[in-house]
Amino acid sequence: MDFDGSQKVIGHGAQADVVEYYGYAYKIYKETYPSEWIAFEKDQQKAVNQAGISPIRYYDTDDDHIIKMDLIRGVMLETKMKAGFEGGFEVIAEAFRRIHNADISNVNMPRLIDTINYIMTEDECKTAGPIIERLSEKYSSCICHLDMHFQNIMFPDDGGDFIIIDWMNTRIAPPVIDYARTYVVIEEFVKELLPYYQAAIAEDMKKLGIEDRDLQDAISVERIIRQHERG
pTM of the predicted model, to two decimals? Predict the structure, then answer.
């Protein structure tokens, strides 16, 4: 795919840049990034579209390393919080509710337990696998975002409802693991805000019957995953 020079860079990451081009966003991956992973990302987005929890559509292009996407004009939750918005953790809690309550009966999405061997070492799988299996038996599984934080929620400039983005990590898993993932991310970057996060999700955790020891076990799994992501 060729651009005519009018594209504007609106995002930059380790593996891809995002540009705005004629009313759409284009995610341009490095040539070294595996095309099968890009195809998997598109399948993930299709699944969350089917579940009704993301309005953003992905479109094929003639280049398997470029994804065309609906463009969101807006600001991240992180930006709003830095400007004084005080309801950030309540927004995250509401985002979790929307995702966890989605109907998964017709959603084609892998289970976390079936994919950990791609993330962890064999010894780590022997530690994490039984924890995930135990939690999956104790709690009903649902769609889990598994990377919910202040940069993955957008507020459109048109005043519409917030939009959750970046569904690459999404899996079917018990919700306690989703709560644990965000705990680990906040612990890593803004540890002093953990009490506010825990307070925001406390009522939902209680309704789901999630015990603190199970949250701590899930946190131990997510710490292993984050260690691999950081390299």
Answer: 0.94
